[in-house]
């Protein structure tokens, strides 16, 4: 889609790229800095007409195909082996999405065999012939993408999807029982989510029968993009993500109860495999969806991230969409990278918000105006101070506080902070509409220290992460 792969992370003619692989070295360095644990490929909506066999083997023999999701052309110069190599160089885990549009089950099984096969079989041998002896051991596989949407090539009803996903899942797990299969949910709060979970969260399936530690489906995918030109609507919109996780998790539990899934089968988790700030009218997909992010958007991203930390017991994976250029915190230019406002909260969370979630209870004033979607205010709180906390394995406590109020600071008497030496990391800017450009970085990270005594002032329109050794 757009400039994500071509002229994004893969650009053989650019001097900033590795001359052997064509991978942009500066993009790889940024991904490593972010310690990205998993990357999903090849789509998105794109996958609904993607045939993986077009993208393997000698490059000069790979066919160019019309691409129907964004009405582009796919050259297939970058395919499975290139993606796997890129993941290995970046140090990230691949996650593949299967074509539920024009693809067949045979093709999906072939792809799984190509990636993970160890026997003397056709597609495993094709991989070897293409230069890769060892299997890639791809763990994560998605059963289609947004199959419910009228924008899909070969949109499905929930009944048709559930039937198809169940059959594909069974066959895929017969071929490789070690994989993690991800069901295509919708928003997390729709009848599609309830229905497909009810039909597919099963364990006593032929081929898996009798093993009370295995299930057909391991995760449930949901997506959410939010955006508003009004700052408080924009910064509180990701509260919908938290409610979505809670609701989808209830549907998972309901399916487990109704289908009598034994407690020994691990509880399925949410795979929030597309989330971000995106307004498709402002940045249309067919034109590459290159959003220019403001400080307000960076605060919205921080609220999304806080929700994932708070709901970490339910969230098995969450993926910001996308990695480069398309709805992304990173923009490539022919001569370098622009780190957008949204890059900075992502980097801070990646560096520090690791380990185990710590419950935080906050009493503070709330935003009471209109929200987008409207139902947020009716179903979940919208505090001006949005918080999460965690403790790392080596005993560092990190507290993330987003002050979404653009008009006032909050002075807070924090309980439980260690006295002495507290690290302070702040992301803010002059006002909520500032953006970072190639010429000027108006939003970044300010670092300082605090002695942990008295109260702390959380500045207006800011993200603050406080860290101390427990
Ligand atoms: O990430 C952009 C698009 O948004 C994806 O292709 C699709 O899955 C979603 O609607």
UniProtKB/TrEMBL annotation:
<feature type="domain" description="Alpha-L-arabinofuranosidase C-terminal">
    <location>
        <begin position="273"/>
        <end position="462"/>
    </location>
</feature>
<dbReference type="InterPro" id="IPR010720">
    <property type="entry name" value="Alpha-L-AF_C"/>
</dbReference>
<dbReference type="InterPro" id="IPR055235">
    <property type="entry name" value="ASD1_cat"/>
</dbReference>
<dbReference type="Pfam" id="PF06964">
    <property type="entry name" value="Alpha-L-AF_C"/>
</dbReference>
<comment type="similarity">
    <text>Belongs to the glycosyl hydrolase 51 family.</text>
</comment>
<keyword id="KW-0378">Hydrolase</keyword>
<dbReference type="GO" id="GO:0046373">
    <property type="term" value="P:L-arabinose metabolic process"/>
</dbReference>
<dbReference type="InterPro" id="IPR013780">
    <property type="entry name" value="Glyco_hydro_b"/>
</dbReference>
<dbReference type="Pfam" id="PF22848">
    <property type="entry name" value="ASD1_dom"/>
</dbReference>
<protein>
    <recommendedName>
        <fullName>non-reducing end alpha-L-arabinofuranosidase</fullName>
        <ecNumber>3.2.1.55</ecNumber>
    </recommendedName>
</protein>
<keyword id="KW-0119">Carbohydrate metabolism</keyword>
<keyword id="KW-0326">Glycosidase</keyword>
<dbReference type="GO" id="GO:0046556">
    <property type="term" value="F:alpha-L-arabinofuranosidase activity"/>
</dbReference>
<comment type="function">
    <text>Alpha-L-arabinofuranosidase involved in the degradation of arabinoxylan, a major component of plant hemicellulose. Acts only on small linear 1,5-alpha-linked L-arabinofuranosyl oligosaccharides.</text>
</comment>
<dbReference type="GO" id="GO:0031222">
    <property type="term" value="P:arabinan catabolic process"/>
</dbReference>
<dbReference type="InterPro" id="IPR017853">
    <property type="entry name" value="GH"/>
</dbReference>
<comment type="pathway">
    <text>Glycan metabolism; L-arabinan degradation.</text>
</comment>
């Amino acid at each position: 889609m757009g400039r994500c792969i071509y002229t994004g992370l893969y650009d053989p003619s650019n001097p900033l790229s590795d001359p052997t692989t064509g991978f942009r070295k500066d993009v790889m360095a940024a991904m490593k800095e972010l310690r990205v644990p998993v990357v999903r490929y090849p789509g998105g909506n794109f996958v609904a007409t993607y045939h993986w066999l077009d993208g393997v083997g000698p490059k000069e023999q790979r066919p160019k195909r019309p691409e129907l999701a964004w009405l582009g052309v796919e050259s297939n110069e970058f395919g499975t082996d290139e993606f796997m190599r890129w993941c290995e160089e970046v140090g990230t885990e691949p996650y593949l999405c299967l074509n539920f549009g024009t693809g067949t089950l045979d093709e999906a099984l072939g792809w799984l065999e190509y990636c993970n096969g160890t026997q003397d079989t056709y597609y495993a041998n094709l991989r070897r012939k293409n230069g890769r002896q060892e299997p890639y051991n791809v763990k994560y596989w998605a059963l289609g993408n947004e199959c419910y949407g009228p924008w899909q090539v070969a949109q499905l009803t929930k009944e048709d999807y559930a039937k198809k996903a169940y059959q594909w899942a069974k066959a895929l797990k017969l071929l490789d029982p070690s994989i993690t299969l991800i069901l295509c949910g919708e928003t997390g709060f729709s009848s599609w989510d309830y229905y497909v979970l009810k039909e597919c969260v099963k364990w006593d399936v032929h081929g898996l029968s009798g093993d009370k530690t295995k299930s057909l489906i391991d995760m449930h995918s949901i997506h959410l993009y939010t955006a508003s030109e009004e700052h408080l609507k924009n910064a509180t919109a990701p509260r919908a993500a938290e409610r979505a996780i809670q609701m989808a998790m209830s549907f998972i539990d309901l399916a487990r109860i109704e289908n009598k899934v034994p407690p020994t089968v691990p509880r399925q988790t949410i795979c929030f495999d597309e989330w971000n700030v995106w307004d498709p009218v402002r940045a249309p997909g067919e034109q590459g969806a290159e959003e220019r992010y403001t400080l307000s958007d960076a605060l919205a991203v921080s609220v999304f991230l806080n929700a994932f930390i708070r709901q970490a017991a339910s969230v098995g994976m969450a993926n910001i969409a996308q990695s480069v250029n398309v709805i992304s915190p990173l923009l490539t230019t022919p001569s370098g990278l622009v780190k957008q406002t949204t890059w900075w909260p992502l980097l801070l969370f990646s560096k520090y918000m690791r380990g185990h979630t710590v419950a935080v209870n906050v009493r503070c004033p709330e935003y009471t105006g209109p929200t987008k979607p409207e139902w947020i205010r009716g179903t979940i709180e919208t505090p001006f101070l949005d918080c999460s906390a965690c403790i790392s394995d080596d005993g560092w406590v990190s507290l993330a506080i987003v002050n979404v109020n653009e008009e006032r600071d909050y002075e807070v008497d924090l309980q439980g902070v260690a006295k002495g030496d507290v690290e302070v990391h702040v992301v803010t800017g002059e006002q909520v509409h500032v953006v970072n450009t190639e010429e000027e970085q108006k939003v970044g990270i300010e670092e300082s220290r605090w002695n942990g005594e008295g109260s702390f002032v959380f500045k207006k329109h800011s993200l603050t992460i406080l860290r101390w050794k427990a």
